[in-house]
Each structure stands twice: as structure tokens, then as C-alpha cells.
Write the C-alpha cells for this entry.
Amino acid sequence: MRLGSFPFWIYVLLSISLLNHRPGVCVLATPPEGEPLEEAPASVADYRSVEKVPSVAGCRIEPITHGDESFHGYTAKGSSIVAPSTTVQIVIFGHWLEELSSISFVPSLVSVANCSLRTEDLTFAATDFLIQTDKRMIVSASFPPTESGVAYHLCIHARSKFGIVSDFTEISDARTWITTELPERLYYFPFPIQVFVIAALLVLSGLFSGLNLGLMSLTPQELMLIQKSGSKSERRYADIILPVRERGNLLLCSLLIGNVLVNSGISILLDDLTSGYVALIGASAGIVVFGEIFPQSLCVKKGLAVGAHTIWVTRFFIVLTFPVAFPISKILDIFLGEEVTSYDRRRLMELIKMSNNDGLQEELKIAVGAMEISDKIVLDVMTKIDDVFMLPFMTVLNTKTVAEILRMGYTRIPVFSGDRNNVVSLLFVKDLALLDPDDNFTIQTVCGYHQHPLRFVLEDTPLRVMLEEFKKGDYHLAMVQRIVQKGDGDPHYELVGVVTLEDIVEEILQAEIVDETDAVMDNVHRTRRRGAQARDISSLVDGDEPSRVISVQMLLVTMQWLTSNQRAFHQDMISQTVLERLIRQHCRKVELSHLPDMYDSKTVIPRTAKLYSKQDYSDKFILILEGRAMVTIGQDAMTFEAGPWHAFGTDMLEKLVEQSEQDAAREKENVSSRNSLNAAGDITKAGKVGFMPDFSVVVRDECTFLEITAQSWLLAYRSTLMSRGGHRPSTITSDTNIGERTMSRGSLNETKNSLVSPKQLNTRLHIRRGTTWL
């Protein structure tokens, strides 16, 4: 030490001062702040002394291990609360704590503790301190349980200075006290109420989860389907749910927001009841089991019923979450568009196939067949050309040929010329109905007069297109062709088969239609039909066989009456031979003797007994031969009986005669008879020869009558022209002394005084043969 910079006498004075100072006080000589030691002032008054007295500012409780729940917070006064008999670490903060030699925790009921009552268990020496620094010290301790209101007060003991021993000093700050009296646990709600709220939230969580799956899986289209085809209860449920389900995005957002809210509430409330892993496991298990698995498994099967019975809850939460859910749903509507669910044909077809209902197997099969025709072509259903029954163009229609045609049972027969690949026309069996096999007409002659349309289609034509063509009614049979190209030559058509309307119908029904004339079960595999019985067709080719409905005498009288009273059946129009066949084939007999009372209004009238129905289109001419029929006419439903030789529908025949006269006029303009005949056939296609009756005719007793349609008359007319070589007079002898009253176009050809008063009607009974007024 240099005496020049630090005077020696000052050092001596300081040493004397230290010898006279009391223990526990340390006096330091420090130079003034901001000046170096070498320039220290020589005045003693410029130096001060600081006493190192330990002081405690506070303490903190720390658990020994992470997650230990030994510390339970603080009291209202700031005292630490620890679990009794649990080892904790006490961290003490202050100044000059390194001067402490020991500490002790003394239980006390009052605010001032007596440190002399300390125990060894709660007294810790410096060697027990885990850490001891100037400002912090740590010690581990375990506090036994105490009575209510008792707290452990901290007492400290400083080190001895200069042989002077000090006593324990109590820290009176309540923030340094420790108590083992655990406070009563506080919950958000009273414990029973909080448990009930958690249970209610679990129910709502399950409801939202189930409705989210049950309602959202039902599209509006499915709900409308249930409205129309479901049971009574299902229709009622669908009516309730559909208005809410139509706003799908709003419903989805409301259910999801509600589900999130209740799940969060369950976790918060359960964590308040327990803590840590218990709350985590309990909330997760409750939400998964009662909020997800069970409700969703229930709503998958009973979603419609659950949704309908809880619709008020759904509406409430839609209103509750509307401020948040509505904007989100509108955004989804804008970006995702409207919810549209539809089934294309393939999906719908597979859905029908998946339906496993034994009672609806046939119906489902038909539905599938109807939808599958769009995927099929003509080649899939046609009859191969090698299996088609065909006739040469120059075949003579004698008795043997006609019998063979009738035995085969086909109504339309392709006709080829030379090669079977060269089909030129079609022969309809009905064209042979009025021909005499002894006339030995050729197929060329018959086909030349009738000229039925012959259509050709390609083998790859879709069945749906083919069905639409057949539905138009112009033809129900088409020849199937394919395009063949051999070598470098031009492509040509090759005939491969025949397709009919029946083939397409069978494909729709997924079954073969077998009637009494079929010899094979199907047109693809050509399976022979078992048990097919040969039919007696002699009556169809034997023209001399008498009619089974009327006698020979009645046949002759009918021919005489038609020839004399109807221009349409005059010999110039219909030959006697053709007329005889026409009458035999079109006589009908209705036997109603088995009915109890035909005059009873409650009696069900057979369809065959209704000759005409009011306002129902008809193209029939009917002549009563035997028996009587009931005629009802007018708004007042006046009735009378029509007896033998009463005719209906004569105006239809007059139209046909007028058309034939127009054909004769066209013949003079070099129009061939063949074309005129086809023109006459166009009448029926245009639907102009029928009439709409304003009366009804019902057979009330056994009755025999002649029923001739417009097509039948045209067929007879054509047959007559063929037998005459296509020639006919241009005028028709008009022997039309019609003595009987007739009815057509819905009105009676009566005189103006025919409908009179009931008294006058009674006087006219049986005046004219065949008519009896009621």
C-alpha cells in the first residue's frame, strides 16, 4: 500500500472503528462514487457502513416431481397451501440469506408464533439447505396435518458474530406462512347440477352427431321419394324433416357448431370436476361412446324417426347459431352450389339389381330389362335369317300352302325373289282370310295388291330407336342387314335376320312370350317347345264347312239383306264368295243366360256384351241377327230394344263407299288400281272412317250379330278386286231400298216424329219387326 495515495492514519482509524463495532455489522470503507481508489479523499466522513442482517421477502412452494398436486394455491391472506404429509420444496427469497444458520416452521393458531415451540422435524440447519445464496435458499419439508385455522410460521436464525448468539426470529409476513388445511373445492356449478349438465351435454353431443349422419345422408330427393312411396309414418316424418333439410348447408353448419360447443363444454366441466389425465380420458371416452358411436349407429337405421321427433331441438339450435352458421352456409352455397343428387341409368339399374325382395323379383326383372334396352342393339335380339320362315315370290297359294302357313303360326312372312338374301315383300296371314285356295293366287299377286311396307335396318341399330319406330304403328317387323365389303369392291348389304316388336317386348320382360302357335321357346337358341299340340286348321282352309255360329239359312238371308240394303255389300263392291266368307268369319254370339238378372243395374256386364259405348271411338258396323240389344241414347238416357235386322254404323260404310268411288275416278286419270287400293287403305291409317257414338248398345239377352270393322271391309274389297283381276265398274248400282232403321255417328235415323210421348210410345209396340220401344 502506498502511503502517498492512501494515508496510513486513515487505515488505523478504520481498524479501531471495526474493533468497537457491534457483532453482525460489517463496515466497509468505500471511495465516493465515480472516483478511482487512488484519488480517494482524505476525509473519514465520506465513508459509510452496511449491516448484513438476513431478511425474508417471501417464499414459494414447488412440487418435487412434475405433475405433483402437493401445492394447492394460496389463501386469501397469501399463505401457501400444501397437501399434508407431502414433501415439497420451499423456495425462500430475501437478502443476506447466506447469513442464516437454520430455519424452522412453527405451527401457530394466532398471527404471532412462538419460535421456541419449534420441532426437530420442521427445523432445518444450513447443512439441510439444498441451495443457499445471498438472495435465495431452498429446503425440502413435509408438513403434518393441522387443525383448522393453524398455519406454519417461518422462524429464522442468523449466524453468530464475534461470539454473540442470536435467537430465532419470526417472520410475521403472512405470505411466508404455510398451511395444510385444504380449501373446499369450488366448481362452476354446484356438484349435482354440474354432473347433470355434463350428462345433458353428452346427450346433445350424441344428438348432433346422430342427426349429422342421419339427416345429411337423406337427400331432399330421397325425402320426396319417401313422401310419395313410404309408409304412413315415413311420409309424416318426411313432411316434417324436408323443410329443414332443403337448406342443407345451414343445417350442416348448425349441427357442427352445436356439436363443437357441447363437446368443448363437456371437456371444460369435466376438467373442473377432476383434473389432468382423468378429465382427458373421461371426456374422450364419454364423447366417443355416448356422443359418436352409439348415436350414429342408431341414426343410421332410425335417422328418419329420430330426426322427426327431435326437429324442435334442431330448429332451436339453428336459431341459436344463426348469426355464425348463416354466413358460413351462404359462402358454401356460393362456392359449392346447390345440393343435387341424381342417379344415372346405370346406377339406378345396379340399385334395382341389388334389391333382394323375393316378392318383387319379376317386377324388378322387367324394370331392369326396360333400362337395359338402351345398351343393346338389334343384333342382340333378332332372329337369324337361317331360322326365318320365308316363302318364294312365285309360290301358289293353294290349300297345301295355306295350310303350311297356318301351321307355322306366323302372322307376317317375308317373301324373297330368287335368293333368300333378296327379300322383296311381306305377306300378312290376314290377307288370306277371304281368299279361296281353289283360285290358286300366287304370293306375287297378293303382295302386289296389298303392298305392305318392308323396312330394312342395320344390325347395330339401338333397340330403343327400333322400339320408337315400332311404336309409331307403321310396321312391326323389319329385316336386319349388315354392310359387307369383300376385297376392293364396293360394299353391299347382306341380310342377317329379322327383328319384330315381340322380340323387343321379350327383351324388356326378360322372358320368352310363347303362345299356342309357337314351335320354339326362343328365337336365339331355337329350343323346341315341348308338349306343343298340332292344331286342327282344316276349318281355315276348307271353304265348304258351314259356320258354327249361324245356320246356312241364316247365312243366305244375311247375304240377301246386306246386298239389298247396304251399298257397301253390293255385288259390284263385294263378290258373293267373299261376302259369304266375310259373314262366316265375323258372326258373333253372346250367351248371357248364366247371369242372374241382366236388367239389374248392379249386374256386372261382360266386355263382350258391350257393342258400343257412349263417346268411345268405334269403327264397327253391327247388324243384329238374332236376339235383342238395349240401346241408351240422349241426355235423358232414353232406352229402347233393338231386335233382328237393326243395323248400327252404316255411315262408316258410306264413307268407305265414297272413298272407293273416288278411287274409281282416279282410275280414269290413269291411276292404277293398285295405287287406288293403297289410297283406300290410307283411310283407316288417317282414322277418318270411324265415328264417336252418343249412344250405347249393350246385349241384355242371348244375341247373335254380325260385326264388321273397316279393316275387314277393306280386306274383302281388295280380295274382290284380286278375284276380278283388279277391274271394277266406275259406278255402283244403287239398290238402296233400306227398309230397316239404322244408327250411326251417334244418332238414330228416325223421322222427326219418332221420339214422342210415353203414351204414344205404348201404341207403337211391335209395329215394325225387330224394334220394340220401352
Remarks:
- The chain has a mean pLDDT of 77.
- Residues 277-309 form the longest helix (33 residues).
- The two ends are 166 Å apart (CA to CA).
